[in-house]
Amino acid sequence: MIVARSHLSRRSLLTAGGVAAVALGAAGASPSAAAAPADNPVDTPAEALRRLQAGNRRFTSGHGRHPHQGLTDLHRLAAGQHPFAITVGCADSRVAPEVLFDQGLGDLFDNRVAGNIVDDLLLGSVEFAVEEFGSLLIVVLGHERCGAITATIDAIHTGGTAPGHIGTIVDALRPIVEPVLDQPGDPVENGVRANIAAQVRALSARSTIIAEKVHEGALRVVGARYDLDNGRVSLVA
């Protein structure tokens, strides 16, 4: 259940039971108390996107800076965080946003689940970052040869079911993937791209918080696809 906006407050989120504050790394800090980023500040969604794109170019060219990833940076961030971008990515072990975008501690608010699916829990996590930290960009990050998409296609073709709670993932992806199975090209790739676009739409369609920020120009939501073979991240939605 998503907390009603009228009841949302930084203090209540950060202190209720002490759990949310520890889990999300906020430790009771407000944006004004957050440690300043090591790089120049990012002030607009466009600047946030450019920073990620520049970082991915460094990664793919073998010139990554691996910025602010040491203990000194961790100590600096202990007072608070101010991530400039939010990622909604797949849990695949090869798709680590800080690595792909050559970013460091405190830069990205990562949300990762197989199939990069926006369910209620993940949506609440994204809304928390938008409200609490003023993050400027949301990137829905899918990738080629996605196992969750492949499992969904297999279930559709065979009429079978996935074991355990994997079936929940397949059930969430089925209405997105099934309509594109007859399209030309590789069915997994078509499913990956359709899913990225669907999750981008879901973020604004299901969240008043996100939709309002986008309307104000304070936030941008984009879809991106990661190429496992060369490491490049390209915008697709």
Tell me roughly what share of residues is in helical segments. 40-55%
C-alpha Rg (nearest Å): 18 Å
* Contiguous runs where pLDDT drops below 50 for at least 5 residues: 1-38
Globally, the shape reads globular
Order of the strands making up the biggest sheet: 2-1-3-4-5
Strand count:
5
| Mean pLDDT over the full residue set | 86
How many helical stretches?
Answer: 10
Strand content: 5-15%
Order of helices and strands: HHHHEHEHEHHHHEE
- Distance from N terminus to C terminus (CA atoms, Å) equals 28 Å
Protein structure class? alpha/beta
Reported for the largest beta sheet, the result is: 5 strands, mixed
Q: Can you tell me about this structure?
A:
The chain is of the alpha/beta class and 237 residues long. It is built from ten helices and five strands, in the order H-H-H-H-E-H-E-H-E-H-H-H-H-E-E. It has helices spanning 10-15, 19-24, 45-61, 71-77, 97-100, 120-133, 147-158, 166-177, 187-206, 208-216; strands at residues 85-89, 108-112, 137-143, 220-226, 233-235. A five-stranded mixed sheet has the order 2-1-3-4-5, with helices on both faces. Strand 4 and strand 5 (233-235) form a beta hairpin. Helix 7 (147-158) packs across helix 8 (166-177) and helix 9 (187-206) packs across helix 10. The longest helix is centred in the last third of the chain and has 20 residues, at 187-206. The radius of gyration is 18 Å and the shape is globular. The chain starts with 9 loop residues before the first helix and ends with a strand.
